[in-house]
Amino acid sequence: MKKGKILLASAILFSSFFATFLNAKTNETTTKDRLDALSKLNKTINTVEKYYVDDIAFKDLIDKTIAGLMQNLDAHSSFLNEKAFKDMQVQTSGEFGGLGITVGMKDGALTVVSPIEDTPADKAGIKAGDVILRIDGNATIGITIDEAVSKMRGEPKTPITVTIVRKGEPKPFDVNIIRDIIKVESVYSRLIKDDNILYLRVTNFDKNVVAKARDAIKKHPNVNGIIMDLRNNPGGLLNQAVGLVDIFVDSGVIVSQKGRDVSENSEYKASKNSTLTKLPLVVLVNSGSASASEIVSGALQDMKRAVVVGENTFGKGSVQVILPIDDKEALKLTIAKYYLPSGKTVQAVGVTPDVIVYPGKVPQNENSAFVIKESELKAHLQGELEKIDDKSEKNDEKIKNKDDKNIISRQKVDEDIQLKTAIDVIKVLKTNIRG
């Protein structure tokens, strides 16, 4: 018996020693591999520094090495040198000189995620999904997002030419744009008067979105439903996306965040105290709806709270953070991915609408076409009458037109088949609730 105990103790001791030996060997191998890899990197840098055709300062060589590393991780990670870091700080201040577009890398090409509403790019006709082939004659092949943004930003009132490749167009074409100060109204609302529906437009997710959306909804408590328009919304702050969903739902996980480091994993849940309305809801999306827009539309769809109408979204569901290297430089690094309540990711997939509708005008039959012509005639005759009206009547008309800016006209609806479809869906939802 005593001998058996000794043998058992010896076996345990040997096992512990062998495990320690293996662990030490593994650590030794890992350390050796790291040292070998670092030695290879050092030799490569020394070789380039010594033999490359142009003389490159050692600091620039290191910056290029870091930039290349970040660029090859994924399309959204990047090295922010001193200039890029300053540019990002300027952008987050909410006002900068530029074109008014959000760009991303899609299939290796510099692609417009969305033009920001009422900016130079939007007015020049830039569309979501456009590929930017050249910037002022310089090819964008191999360029990073931050380099592209840096080239497109500049002093207000200065010109820039971007060469666009657009699906359906036979060949690339140039678009000339004049830079301007970019100021964005993140949320505004209109009433679709004939149908008593609140139209809520969210152009980007800045820090004011939830507060402004709540104010708009509170002002119109007796509408038949709400249409939330997230088309060409490139995203923004995660907490605002979560807060916006929370206005419409009272329980459940809105979105989860998962990364390699378990400490980065988190869930964002709805709170009953934040719920504001149970009105029928439709969300409008298109290929320019990205990131936070996809969280909102995807979560409301998964939670059966809204009907999503439009086109498939961009597919950007990763989390980036800014990690400073020092006071002047930083890394923008992807640390996690977003997951919808169903467990699906939107990364490279996007959100598929419940009702797929492509942009365009509402088809008109002969009778409805006559109504449009009659409306145009009426507007023309009204203009002729104004020429002979007195000054006070003209002022009254101006005041009336100003008030009408809070209303979406029937003509506007007829020019937007996606919006028209959303209105029809609200009517169906309202009828089902009554039934």
TrEMBL record:
Entry-linked InterPro entries: ClpP/crotonase-like_dom_sf, PDZ, PDZ_sf, Peptidase_S41A, Tail-specific_protease
Keywords attached to this entry: Hydrolase, Protease, Serine protease, Signal
Domain of life: Bacteria
E.C. number(s) listed in UniProt: 3.4.21.102
The keyword RNA-binding belongs to this UniProt entry's keyword annotation: no
CDD domains per the UniProt record, alphabetical: cpPDZ_CPP-like, Peptidase_S41_CPP
NCBIfam families on file: prc (TIGR00225)
This protein's name: Carboxy-terminal processing protease CtpA
Native source organism of the sequence: Campylobacter majalis
